[in-house]
Design brief:
mainly alpha, 7 helices
């Protein structure tokens, strides 16, 4: 059937083959929580897409400690969700269950990004002090992971996948 939520869930679980499915499941949960289970791909005109965008922008966030003035999601999160959802819509466009064509020209009008004045960073002398600090083993482990992230630009999820097989000597 042409039910958006069922098709999206099937696509995530059975068609999309990459490991990074977390964003897709987040999008699926927000669709299940906020939209009718009878919503079809053909119903996804620009008005409905705007309602989905509005839901994502104004969805409660869990970063209140870091950004206490934040009212909704950051633009980057909303954009990532839209790109993930659009990937699904493009796939469906090649099947018998075609989405409304408005998704092709739909643009996300994003809210302004909240101030990031509370973010701080280390300068190189401070970083060197941390890097060379004599710490107990459990803190040294955390420090080493932090330094690895700083040196490589890897996210925490990518660092968790690093193993000794991933390291090439003298490179």
């Amino acid at each position: 059937k042409n039910n958006l939520i069922d098709l999206f869930e099937y696509w995530i679980k059975n068609i999309y083959t990459r490991d990074d499915k977390r964003v897709f499941f987040t999008v699926l949960k927000s669709l299940k929580d906020n939209f009718s289970p009878t919503l079809t791909l053909g119903d996804l005109n620009s008005d409905v897409l705007n309602k989905i965008r509005h839901t994502w922008i104004h969805q409660k966030v869990k970063t209140k400690k870091k950004f206490p003035d934040q009212k909704g999601m950051f633009d980057s999160t909303t954009k990532k969700r839209w790109q993930s959802f659009k990937q699904f819509l493009k796939y469906q466009d090649a099947t018998e269950f075609k989405p409304h064509p408005d998704y092709l020209t739909f643009k996300i009008n994003l809210a302004s990004i909240p101030s990031r004045e509370n973010i701080f960073h280390l300068y190189m002398p401070e970083f060197k002090v941390l890097f060379n600090a004599d710490l107990p083993p459990h803190l040294a482990y955390v420090r080493n992971l932090y330094c690895l992230a700083c040196f490589t630009g890897l996210r925490i999820s990518d660092i968790q996948k690093v193993s000794t097989d991933s390291v090439i000597a003298n490179h």
